[in-house]
């Protein structure tokens, strides 16, 4: 069984480069298949397993997808022909539901399995479905699938109940090729939404207002391929911030957009860390012991829910008591694993009260969800003795080469087990045409 083995207590020092954003890549790879003319060539695509999964889903729909020798991802959407997304791949991640927007826009027909609940609670897609319906799609839910069809999608005014990243993305995809103008209100404002809008506009779409509450999308007849580079991963950057902070480290985090991590940076400064801001990098110099602080998660530009767990891990050994409120997902199951390492955490509904202890102790622990995995790695870096982390495949959904990067920073961390999940990328070769 694959595991990460960490001998804690090493101070992180040196430089680390951040990958392209997994969450941007997932929507942009699907968006690339909207093009019926030319190919999209994507740079800075992270080779995490979720990215592998979305590529395999597109391939199963008939899209040509391959990595060249420079690790650029090529996507030729013209060959898209299947309208049924396969359950065995879609079930692996919720972002697969973006294929619904793609298929409706391109083929006027989509059969996509409904994402089930997951380790961070029930995650419905009702906002997505209501949006598609309002754009003229006939939708039935049958045998666990959303079955949708339309003659054509028609622009509409749609108020998204709750600022939802996935809904905003799916409706942007659908609206790009719809007839007329779609106005989305109460949109998510995450940097990944802006990245998608810039990409779509490069392909010939007409998307205005991304990054604000209201996005206007004037449908166009056809989209074409372009070359594009994905933005840096702000969540990976944040993970290194908390990893450096918990070890009292001194780390230069490179290839980032500093503005995208304003909220985590201001929080870590509150904890006593010195942050030197460069144009595309930051240097983190942490004290021997962090100070406790309070935080609540909220949509961008607030503190990201995806960094709540890494932050709690760091607060486990801070001086004082931290109060952490989670407003987006049901994301506290992992605290039982931190408790097994000696953390003192009490959870009351959406709030975790973390009393800092002097020292965590290494233990065998199990990853419950992606960012919980990052939190356990962070805790293991500071714990005394050995931490064995099981469920590494979940961490690899969102982090490519996390252990290699941490090792280069001086951590004593080893991945033990098979590499087979990474092999998915080596199977993506340029198709030979006859
Ligand atoms: C995306 C991110 C995820 C991040 C989350 C919040 C990707 C691939 N994933 O997830 O990493 O943690 O944003 O920043 O980009 N909701 C509904 N009905 C819906 C849709 C959402 O009730 O139809 C609720 C959700 O349960 C949640 C909230 O709205 O409570 C926000 O979810 P959403 O922003 O849609 O998250 P995801 O797009 O799934």
Structure description:
Helices cover 31% and strands 23% of the residues. The protein is built from 15 helices and 23 strands. β7 and β8 form a beta hairpin. It binds uridine-diphosphate-N-acetylglucosamine. The site of uridine-diphosphate-N-acetylglucosamine has 21 residues, from α1, α5 and α6.
Quickly list its features:
single chain, 434 residues, alpha+beta, UDP-n-acetylglucosamine1-carboxyvinyl-transferase, Chain, 2 domains, 4-stranded mixed β-sheet, binds uridine-diphosphate-N-acetylglucosamine
List the helices and strands and how they pair.
Blueprint: E1 3-7, E2 13-17, H1 22-32, E3 40-43, H2 49-60, E4 64-67, E5 73-76, H3 87-90, H4 98-107, E6 109-113, H5 126-134, E7 138-142, E8 145-149, E9 157-159, H6 165-176, E10 181-185, H7 191-202, E11 206-208, E12 215-218, E13 227-229, H8 234-246, E14 250-254, H9 262-270, E15 274-277, E16 281-285, E17 295-296, H10 308-315, E18 321-325, H11 335-340, E19 344-348, E20 351-355, E21 364-366, H12 370-382, E22 386-390, H13 392-395, H14 402-408, E23 412-416, H15 423-426
Parallel strand pairs: 2-14, 3-13, 9-10, 17-18, 21-22
Antiparallel strand pairs: 1-22, 1-23, 3-5, 4-5, 6-8, 7-8, 10-12, 11-12, 14-16, 15-16, 18-20, 19-20
Helix pairs in contact: 1-2, 1-7, 4-6, 5-6, 6-7, 8-10, 8-12, 10-12
Bound molecules: uridine-diphosphate-N-acetylglucosamine.
Uridine-diphosphate-N-acetylglucosamine binds next to helix 1, helix 5 and helix 6.
